[in-house]
Amino acid sequence: MLGKAVYDHFSKEHRVAMTDIRGTDDKWEYADVRNYHQQHWQISNFRPNVILNLAAETDLEYCESHGDEALSTNAGGSAVLAALAEKFDAKYVYISTAGIFDGSKDRFTELDLPRPLSLYGKAKYYGELIALTAPRSLVVRPGWMMGGGPPTDKKFINKVFKQLQDGAKEIFAVADKAGTPTYTNNLAKQIDMLIQADRTGLYNTTCLGSTNRYEVAKEFIRLLGLEDRIKVTLVDSEFFRYGYPAPRPTSEVLDTRKLEDSGLCVMRDWRECLAEYVKEYRA
C-alpha cells in the first residue's frame, strides 16, 4: 500500500530502487529485508542516500500466532537496515505504527512511553528502538492506513468495499476504538518533506483529526453515494471478537503538534483525504 505511493511520489525526481519479498516484475526486485548479506549486496550496488524501510508484517492476528516472524520482520529487518544505513552513510527511515500504545490516554505524543498490547505492536516498537540507534534515522508513526486502491489496499476501506461488491446491504462497524486514518499518498509527501529538511527522531504522521471505524464507514458510504441503499450499523468490538481476537488499544490517536509546529506538516484532514481516495473506488 505505502510502497506504491512512495514509488509514485519519489520516482518523479529521484532514482529509486524498489524491492519486495513477493517476487519481481518490471519495477520490483526480489529481496528479504531480514537477509543482511542480500541487503548488503543490493545497497552496496545502488548506494542510496536514503533507505526507506516499508517492509512489515502488519496482520495483527497473524503476528499473534507467528511471533517469531513478526519479530524477525518488524524488528530484525530494522536492525539489518539500520546497520547498513550507518555503514553506507544513508539516512534511515522506519515506518512505525500508532499500535505501539496501550490506549490508556485519549491521544499520544512522541514523548509518551509506548506500552504495546499485541505482538505486532511490540515488534514494531522494538523496530523503532533499533532504528533510532542509527546516526541519521527518522521514525514516522502513521495511523490507520488507507491507500493503493482495490488491488493493494488490505485495510478497513477495502474490506468495506469488498462487502459491497459481495452484495452486502448492511455494514457493521465499531465506535469504541479511536484513531486517525492516514492516506498513503499524503504520507509519502510528508516523508519527503521531513527527509528534505534532514529531520531525525520521532514524528507522528497521521492525517489530521480523530475518528472511529463507524464514522469512517459512514463517510465512505456517503462519498460513494450509497447512503440511501447501504445501512451502517454501530456495534462494539465484542461483535468481532472471533474474527479479530488480537488485543487492540481503545485509542490509537496520535498527537501531531510536533509535526505541525515544525512548519513542515503537509498532512490533511482525514475526510479530505478519504474524499480524494474514494475516486479510485468510483473508477
How would you explain this protein's 3D organization?
Helix content is 40%, strand content 16%. Helix 1 crosses helix 7 and helix 4 packs parallel to helix 5. Strands 3-4-5-10 form a four-stranded parallel beta sheet, with helices on both faces. Strands 1-2 form a two-stranded parallel sheet. A two-stranded parallel ribbon has the order 6-9. It is α/β, with parallel strands linked by helices and 283 residues long. The protein has a single domain, classed as NAD(P)-binding Rossmann-like Domain (Rossmann fold, 3-Layer(aba) Sandwich), CATH 3.40.50.720. It starts with a helix and ends with a helix. The longest helix is centred in the N-terminal third of the chain and has 21 residues. The chain is built from ten helices and twelve strands. The model has no long low-confidence stretch (mean pLDDT 93). Strand 4, helix 5 and strand 5 form a beta-alpha-beta unit.
Q: What structural category do the secondary elements indicate? A: alpha/beta
Instruction: Tell me how many strands there are.
Output: 12
CATH homologous superfamily annotation: NAD(P)-binding Rossmann-like Domain
Within the CATH hierarchy, at the fold level, what is the topology?
Rossmann fold
CATH class wording: Alpha Beta
Query: Helicity level, as a percent range?
Result: 25-40%
What coarse outline follows from CA principal-axis ratios?
globular
Shape-level CATH architecture: 3-Layer(aba) Sandwich
Low-confidence stretches: none
Count of runs of 4 or more consecutive helical residues = 10
What do the pLDDT scores average to?
93
Largest sheet: 4 strands, parallel
Major β-sheet strand ordering? 3-4-5-10
| Residue share in β-strands | 15-25%
